[in-house]
Design brief:
By secondary structure, the chain is an all-alpha fold. It is built from 7 helices and no strands. It has one domain.
């Protein structure tokens, strides 16, 4: 096996490992919050707000912001942070933990739901979900980046 193929295989396995762990955590959060992993069907039938998806997207946004800042710092310090670890944690874990497709579908369900709790204020529920995911996600990603950056500055000053 040549060097490029070996490297690609190593990176692919890292993403798969991180992705498996992130997807597992996403399911566990859904079970802990709602009692099972069938969140989309619950929203359509029972009218529950999709809190599990919101939680994983917010936590994942913070985590990815933190990881990006941390790896940028490592690159400044020694010039070679591990690409494999970054892909495992950033792309694999946080990519599988967060979910854009479920978020978009859940907003669609909130808008078109025949469930009485949403039917009367469908646009308001959808707008709240959009704001919480998009604005909240960007804000906590920036916060994660800031937290990691401040830790780096404090560590550098104390050395």
């Amino acid at each position: 096996m040549n060097g490029k193929l070996k490297h690609l295989l190593k990176l692919s396995l890292a993403v798969m490992l991180g992705g498996a762990l992130g997807a597992l955590l996403r399911v566990l959060v859904a079970v802990l919050i709602h009692g099972d992993a069938g969140e989309i069907s619950r929203i359509e039938v029972k009218g529950y707000f999709p809190f599990a998806t919101l939680i994983v997207n917010i936590v994942g946004s913070f985590g990815l912001g933190y990881v990006v800042a941390r790896f940028a710092q490592l690159q400044l310090q020694n010039g070679s942070p591990s690409e494999t670890i970054f892909l495992c944690v950033g792309t694999g874990f946080f990519g599988a933990l967060t979910t854009f497709s479920a978020f978009v579908y859940e907003v669609k369900v909130l808008v078109t739901s025949p469930v009485p709790v949403y039917a009367e204020a469908a646009a308001l529920w959808a707008a709240l979900a959009l704001l919480a995911h998009l604005v909240g996600g960007v804000l906590v990603a920036a916060l994660g980046y800031l937290v990691a950056s401040r830790r780096f500055v404090k560590a550098s000053l104390s050395e």
